[in-house]
Structures are given as C-alpha cells and as structure tokens.
Amino acid sequence: MTTESAPDVPQKRRRGFWVFLRDVLVIIVIAALVSFLVKSFVVRSFYIPSASMEKTLLVNDRILVDELTPRWTGYERGDVVVFADPGGWLPVQAKEPRGPVVLEWFDGLLTLIGLSSSDSEDHLVKRLIGLPGDHVVCCNSLGQITINDAPIDELSYLSLPEGDTAASNEPFDVTVPEESIWVLGDNRDRSQDARAHQDLPSGGFVPLDNVVGKAFLTTWPLPRIGTIDGHHDVFNGVPEPD
C-alpha cells in the first residue's frame, strides 16, 4: 500500500492570499489610471468657493466640468466655464500650515485621479458672454448688454438686488481678442469678473488656453443635483462678429 503526504494547506493559503493581494493591487492601479485619464481628458470635479455665480451655483456646490466636448465643438455664449487664473484675478493667499504628510499625500492623490478638488481655489467659474471677435457693450437704455449691437435679456439667470434690472452697474465697451473670451458672474454686483480686471495686462480677457472646460452638472449637495443651464436661447439673436 502506498502512502501519500498530506497537502501543505498553510502554504497554499499563503500563496492564495498573495495572489488575491496582487489582483487587488492591479485593480486599484488600473482604476487610478482610468480615473486619472478621465480627469485629464474627459471630466473633472470642482467646488464653488464664492457667491459670484448665484443663483446658478451656490457656495460649496460641487460641479462636474466637461473637458472633452469643447475640444471638438468649441464654446458657446452662455456656457458656464471653469478656468485657471489668467493672472491677478485671485488674491494672493497666505500658505496654510502643512497638515499631516499622509493626509496631504492622500488628498493630492485623490485630486490627481479626480476624486477630490483641492485645486478649486486656483480656478474660477463664470458665464461666457463674449467669444473671440465679439463687440460687447454695457449697457443700452434698458440696462441690457449688447453683443455685436444685439441686446441680450439675462434676467432669467441673473441675481440682482430687488428692483434693479441693469445687467451691470459698471459700464464697459470691449472687443474680445482672438483666442480669448469675456466672462461675467451671474451675481453681477458680487462678482470680481472681467469688468474688475481690465487694468491688468490681459485686459480682463481670459485666454482660451486657460479654460478647463464647461460645467454641466451639480453633484452636491444632494438636493441640488442637476444639470447646469447655459441659457443659450438668450444669445440666439446675436449675430456673428464682423
């Protein structure tokens, strides 16, 4: 009669554990890579730090920004866009004390793969009013902005003091340069937008290279989940610039 040695059960279990751990790590790496690619080329998350876009966007709203579509279709008047500071729009902020290294590293990793938005304070969100070549003027006798001599009625989305119907209390007359846009906040009296930065070298215009993409969805808080309206119908009557 032959005798066979009993299988080495602990050794098999150890090998099975390491195979399982390897598979989990591979899945995590692949998921992180996919998230990074999505953030870099498709969609990105930001939060709203100020009231400049009320009533469209509220403080601490979380939004998703479409980075991909505008690369193919371009931007439209009315789009709500997120862009990096062209220089001098945001105040210089004192560097906050460093937190625990592990937490900073973890937050940096989440930002890298698009699950956090710690770089939101380096960006701004406004509504696109003027495209390259547009002649944008404020305001006509009704308090409306005109684009290429066509008035636009923005009252459907502006947040204005009661009884005030003027789209801006600061007059301006600009022609948007090539490869740039003119942007304003919906909360006109509380928005440090293009009007406030005309004395900068950029003239208050935002280079298209600084634009991250078009905001299309509010994701947080839960009661505010929904699409972000570009109100493109407001701009239907605007002719193309000469």
Account of the 3D structure:
The chain has 242 residues and is of the alpha+beta class. 21% of the residues lie in helices and 23% in strands. The protein has 3 helices and 12 strands. It has helices at 9-41, 69-73, 101-112, and strands at 43-47, 62-66, 80-84, 123-130, 135-138, 145-147, 150-152, 172-175, 180-184, 206-207, 211-220, 226-227. Strands 1, 2, 3, 4, 9, 10, 11 and 12 form an 8-stranded antiparallel sheet that branches. β11 (211-220) and β12 form a beta hairpin. The protein starts with 8 loop residues before the first helix and ends in a 15-residue tail after the last strand. Mean pLDDT is 83; it is low at 94-99.
Task: Put the structure in a nutshell.
The chain is of the alpha+beta class.
Give the total of beta strands.
12
Whole-number average pLDDT? 83
Q: Fraction of residues in helices?
A: 10-25%
Provide the succession of SSEs: HEEHEHEEEEEEEEE
State Rg.
Answer: 25 Å
Low-confidence stretches: 94-99
Biggest sheet details: 8 strands, antiparallel
Number of helices: 3
Shape: elongated
Query: SS-based structural class?
Result: alpha+beta
